[in-house]
Amino acid sequence: MASLAKYIRLALGAWALALMITVSVPSIAQQVNPTASAVKEQQLLQEFNRIQGRVSIPDQRSGVLEQPAGREWREFRNVTLRWIGGVAILGMLVALVAFYLIRGMVRLQAGRSGRTIVRFGAFERFAHWMTATCFIILAISGLNITFGRPLLLPLIGHEAFSEWSQWAKYAHNYLSFPFTIGVMLIFLMWLGGNIPNKVDVEWIKRGGGIVGHDHPPAYRFNAGQKAVYWIVVIGGAAVAITGYELMFPFYLSGIEGMQTAAVVHAIVAVLFVAVMLAHIYIGTIGMQGAFEAMGSGIVDVNWAKEHHSLWLEEEETRAAAKDARSKPAATAAE
């Protein structure tokens, strides 16, 4: 009897094992069919180490915690972006320092005349400084995301870095809105004066008054300023669109689209910072009298004659015509 019971248990165990294999094999086959016609090696690699769970919110895509493309994005953020940003920003700083040591400040050759002319109105300067202030804070807080951990964290410690990064993130998110408004205002205010023309070609050929001591004619905005204008408009639009896509996840695209937006946002942003360093240089220590244009809005006539002679002629012609129209009325009043 004992032997019979033993054989029965063995038979039942074998039958149960066979049943489990029969049920599990079709299940595995339904997930991945390892035949040449159904799956390729690349498809298997794409799903390797994919971590996906369940979420209670309507968008189930947020349940993907890790995916192959995410590792590529992490490599870009931690390695490639740091090289791009470091080369662009540090390279620009080195170039500006070298240029200043060689060329020095571009000074007024004729000196100051004592007469002034209005270059930018109050609203224009408000829009410029609002955008510029927001940009500086956005740049600092954004660079903290890329370079803060390897550079700043060892200097100030974990607690201080955590507190700083939290407030930097708040500033980055909320100041994006006035920055976007400022870019839109700049686009609308100065579009008419920033259309390229033949005068810009000649300005570039003659070095724009920066290289050498020549002062080629220019209208209200020269070719260099027009280039900055379009970089601000196009670059500002690019970082704004991609930034809002990241601020409001899954509204415009899935995870892959957001990763692409993060790459575009980061690359455009670091190049934007590098260009603005050159813009700040010219507007401060690079050119005598340039800061006054956006500081007080008033520039010396000799400065306008050397750097924007065609614009000065237009303003003087307009002022003369206005005086001519007002003189008959004044004579009649006498």
TrEMBL record:
Membrane spanning residue stretches: 83-106, 126-147, 174-191, 227-251, 263-282
Stored InterPro entries: Cyt_b561_bac/Ni-Hgenase, Di-haem_cyt_TM, FDH_cytochrome_b556_subunit, Formate_DH_gsu
Protein's membrane topology: Multi-pass membrane protein
This protein's UniProt keywords: Cell membrane, Electron transport, Heme, Iron, Membrane, Metal-binding, Signal, Transmembrane, Transmembrane helix, Transport
Annotated compartments: Cell membrane
Gene3D superfamilies xrefs: Transmembrane di-heme cytochromes, Chain C (1.20.950.20)
Domain Cytochrome b561 bacterial/Ni-hydrogenase, chain residue ranges per copy: 119-296
Keyword Transcription: no
Signal peptide positions on this chain: 1-29
Necessary cofactors: heme
UniProt family annotation: Belongs to the formate dehydrogenase gamma subunit family.
Protein name (record): Formate dehydrogenase subunit gamma
Protein's organism: Bradyrhizobium quebecense
